[in-house]
Amino acid sequence: MNYKDILNGVQKQLSSEQSEARILASNEESIKSIAEQSKIILDLLEKDSAKKDLTQSWLQVKIDDVAAQMSILHDFLKYEASSDDNTYAADRPGLWENIRKKKEREGKKYKPAKPGDPDRPDTKQWKKLT
User: pTM of the prediction?
Assistant: First the structure.
């Protein structure tokens, strides 16, 4: 290994660490902005006109989406792995990996399973898997 390879490796490592720092700073700023905007929205709810605007159906969809995303973020940041966690599922391939493997195995003969086929997940399984 020559000195150029070593320098390139060091540069890549520094670049990666700087990139992570930028991402962290950006994410922290975004979360602070979300908190500030949430406070403003809560203050606006004191006005009757704002409450009337909240009855629009398209807005309900947006509010539900934001609430779901915030819940996911909250759970991800709050969660701490413990020794009694069942992590065996993480060691197994997921749905999409299984589909990719099946496509590789069958090649040009591959056809996705149709509804009702025994190897196709039903609606409940599909929602749970995706």
Answer: 0.47
